[in-house]
Amino acid sequence: MFKIQKWLKKNCKILCIISECETTKLNICLSKGGSLEQLIVNGEEIITNLANLPYNQTYASSILFPFANRIKDGKYNFNGKSYSLDVNETKANNALHGLVYNKTFNVIEKNCNSQSASLRLSYTEKKPHPGFPFFFRIDLIYKLTLNTLDLEVEITNTGTNSFPFTLGWHPYFKIFNKAQSKLQFKSYKKLDSDDRCITTSIKESKTPNPLYLDNINLDDAFILEDKNVAFETHRYKANLTVLNASKYLQLYTPNDCDAIAIEPMTGVSDSFNNGIGLKKLSPSKKFNMKWSLKVLSNY
Description:
By secondary structure, the chain is mostly beta strands.
């Protein structure tokens, strides 16, 4: 029987889903945007929170909404009006990774049985930021089995005006022996960017498949040709399945960390200005996205 526990860790409210054999665990921090703190499958750490680095530098496993990646200078126009977001990437003068990564989510529903456990978390925006003066509700539904994790995100426009948005997820996967680690995904196009990591163009570029991680550093965005992304390292293989609306993939290997960010997104950096992947949600309408992860460990 799966079970759900809760505790307080450095002023962060943590929920932990644990399998009966206690070899599969999922930690979620309600105080950090409902983000996934850690995923362990068959005793192996699969997703890590890079605990040695500040969360506001890594955004580890955070949900990226209402924009994924960056907005240049934090400025954009929508429906004839100009808006200005806070610049939280000060060196590059960008707004970074949305507005919910540091919000506190509430538990709406939880279920446990012998095969799985699920949690529904929710945050409702009641005092919108002046740079995004729109009302919304965002629900996160986590479902864990012994070797799979589903994350569904539901966005609801609770206001009276339409708003622009993109959506993403920022998990860091643990690397065991980078020299023997590789990614497998199909892509024939990449996003070019400037020295501020702002998208400048789309270019034809067939990505090696598999893409070996030895001796390379990544901070690149790709357009996926299909819905499957596989990551294989020394102790496990993870298969991430994305929906068509989430066809943009950001890959990032932070310095001096045995981890890689594999970030599915519905849009790219500066999407509020360049329109690449940008969506619009009308009043009372919903948008749903689901990412599914299957892990094979100790194979």
